[in-house]
Amino acid sequence: MHTTTEKILVTGALGQIGTELTAKLAEIYGKDNIVASDIRAQDQAITAAGTYVQLDVTDSERMINIVAEHSVTTVYHLASLLSGTSEDKPMFAWRLNVEPLIVLLELAKEKKIKRLFWPSSIAVFGKGIPKKNVKQDVPLNPTSVYGISKVAGEKWCEYYHDKFGVDVRSIRYPGLISWKTPAGGGTTDYAVEIFYEAVQKGEYTSFIDKDTAMPMLYMDDAIDATIRLMQAPSAQLTVRTSYNMGGLSFTPKELSAAIKKKMPDFKIDYKPDFRQAIADSWPSSIDDKVAQDDWGLRYEYDLDAMTDTMLLNLKEKLKH
Ligand code: SER
After folding, report:
1. CA 318 to chain centre
2. Ligand 1: nearest atom to the Cα of 146
3. Looking at residue 258, which CATH number applies to its domain?
């Protein structure tokens, strides 16, 4: 266990990343040093944290009070609306994805917290760049509401770091694949749904077309990278917008071929919906050399290892 006196608040702790990150943080820093929060009421799933508080992050006064009451030093601010849902509710997406981040940056500026993690996304990329091996410093021209909110957030992070020395750290996550907690409303979520339906029905209709490659990642690698970035010495970090993270790159067709190796009868067909346009605007692969050099980003899971783990765990989880 880590020995420094960190008191950690996680927002969005019942979400896809939140449930797994909270458990990992509790393992590292001790359960009693973790305050988990989410807009939903207490849930069995979050027994990993010492304290659970219900928190709507758009209620700034409540968020500020929770930070003070629990003497929070570090915040992992995960509460967010994903890309599909953000297109339906653009104003809400802006309010939820950007404004609470600024409230937390202000708290850091006032030295009421020491460190902040905020997730960005491959959705920051858009027009005018090559699709493959997208570098850290390319122009950001997103075409989705979600992407716009993430670019704005990144710029606020950099501004607070450069102007006030705020220690804010961020990763541009690829599509995250996991079995413990479902995602919801994301463009990359076909790659999670496909596993549930493979196990439950033996077939899947993908809302993303067969040859659309997107950057993707198994959750364990995302959690490992997040902890690695947050534990790196501040002076080593050269990026205060958000670090590129490439992970894997595959198409629905390639993913279904990996599933067929384990389930030869699995069937897939394709009915792209509005999320296809979002996927088409994103890169197919990403260069993350800067993250490797600055804080040692690395990966454990390739496509086959991820597929095996997903199928194994979901078969067990969905047995009843
Ligand atoms: N995976 C997210 C989405 O599809 C992107 O960050 O919305």
Report:
1. 24
2. 7
3. 3.90.25
Whether 111 and 195 map to the same domain: the answer is no
The residue written with tokens 């030869």 in the block is 264
For CA atoms 182, 185, 188, 189, the dihedral sign is positive
Please identify which of the residues 146, 190, 204, 299 carries the catalytic annotation: 146
The CA-atom distances, in angstroms, between 165 and each of 102, 111, 156, 157 are: 15, 10, 12, 10
Beta carbon of 173 within 6 Å of any ligand 1 atom: yes
Same domain, 27 and 16: yes
Domain that holds residue 140: 8-175+219-244
Q: How far is the CA of 263 from the centre of ligand 1 (A)?
A: 27
- Tokens 């988990």, residue? 36
Do 121 and 37 lie in one domain? The reply is yes
> Residue 72: CB within 6 Å of ligand 1?
no
If asked whether residues 109 and 208 sit together in one domain, one would say: no
Q: Ligand 1, atom 3: nearest CA belongs to which residue?
A: 186
The whole-angstrom separation of Cα 36 and Cα 14 is 8
Q: Are residues 226 and 93 in the same domain?
A: yes
For a substitution probing ligand 1, which of 83, 190, 286 has the most ligand atoms within 8 Å of its CB?
A: 83
Q: What is the pTM of this model?
A: 0.95
For the chain, 320 residues long, give each residue's pLDDT as a single digit of tens: 565 689 999 999 999 999 999 999 999 999 999 999 999 987 555 678 889 999 999 999 999 999 999 999 999 999 999 999 999 999 999 999 999 999 999 999 999 999 999 999 999 999 999 999 999 999 999 999 999 999 999 999 999 999 999 999 999 999 999 999 988 889 999 999 999 999 999 999 999 999 999 999 999 999 999 999 999 999 999 999 999 999 999 999 999 999 999 999 999 999 999 999 999 999 999 999 999 999 999 999 999 999 999 999 999 999 87
- Find all residues with CB under 8 Å of 207, minimum gap 6, and list them: 190, 271, 272, 273, 275, 276
Q: How far is the centre of ligand 1, averaged over its atoms, from the C-alpha of 83 (Å)?
A: 5
The verdict on whether 190 is a catalytic residue reads no
